[in-house]
Design goal:
With 274 residues, the protein is α/β, with parallel strands linked by helices. It is 31% helix and 25% strand. It contains seven helices and nine strands; from the N terminus they run αββββααββαβαβαβα. The radius of gyration is 17 Å and the shape is globular.
């Protein structure tokens, strides 16, 4: 994407001129996980199609709007729908909202997704707190000329998911009595679900869950110095572990069932974030 900084600045200026809030926290709501915003007060909504240079969501379960609101004392941006490489967008376009959020002053990002369980101790409905990622998407959103105004040429990925935010999430879950697992997330290009042979290979390299998003956003946010927290909702067991064929409708069904617990958890985490 040419003139990325200038385009992101134009998008940020548009959002500022159409909303009163100035959040430092943003949350991305994955497939079927959009109920968090029901608890927002003082909400303002901007459809993606109205924001200059923003892509548009094309996947079922992704509304395609930027919402600002308040959870307790915290102002929050909520991205109701994300963009995927398999939709035909470039990696820069997939991650475009995060460049805009950075220019809006966002410092902390919460990512959510629906994922397949590779770890056999998981079950549909399990919530997994991400500790690390494996990039198997065949590319990287930071390929190409680097703009130092966003971040360094060679960004560090030692702690892609903030230890501080993970500890806050764990403490909050324990206090609320919410069961969760921790694990490594593997990002896969899609849109096909993985084969059984691929899942065996992914398990062998240490993956606990697999899905088709989150990794590019994680890399870009770390590159720009934003702290990241991420949670997967395990909506199905991966190919070769479960015995039935996959369907997106079933993914959305399980995500909706687990969504209330996830939203209660993340809502409490957001209200405790500094």
């Amino acid at each position: 994407m040419e003139q990325l900084y200038e385009k992101a600045l134009e998008s940020a200026d548009y959002i500022r001129s159409h909303t009163a809030a100035r959040p430092k926290i943003a949350v991305v709501l994955g497939s079927g996980l959009g109920n968090l915003t029901a608890a927002f007060t003082e909400t303002e909504e901007l459809p993606y199609r109205d924001i200059p240079h923003f892509p548009v969501s094309t996947v079922a379960g992704h509304r395609g709007a930027l919402l600002t609101g308040r959870l307790g004392q915290r102002e929050v941006y909520a991205l109701e729908g994300r963009f995927h490489f398999y939709e035909g967008y470039t990696m820069k376009e997939v991650c475009y909202p995060f460049y805009t959020l950075k220019l809006l002053g966002v410092e902390q990002v919460i990512l959510t997704n629906a994922a397949g369980g590779v770890n056999r101790s998981f079950a549909p409905g399990t919530l997994m707190l991400l500790t690390d990622f494996i990039n198997m998407m065949g590319t990287n959103p930071l390929i190409g000329p680097n703009d130092e105004r966003f971040g360094p040429r060679f960004p560090d990925m030692t702690e892609p998911y903030s230890l501080e935010l993970r500890n806050l999430a764990k403490q909050t879950a324990d206090e609320l009595g919410i069961f969760y697992q921790e694990g490594v997330y593997l990002g896969f290009m899609g849109p096909c679900y993985e084969t059984a042979a691929e899942i065996r290979a992914f398990a062998g390299v240490g993956a606990d869950a697999v899905s088709m998003s989150t990794v590019p956003e994680t890399m870009v946010c770390n590159y720009m110095g934003m702290k990241v927290l991420a949670v997967s909702c395990i909506t199905n067991m991966a190919t070769g572990i479960q015995t039935v064929k996959h369907s997106h409708a079933r993914v959305l069904e399980i995500a909706n069932q687990a969504g209330d617990t996830l939203c209660r958890w993340l809502g409490a985490v957001i209200q405790r974030m500094e």
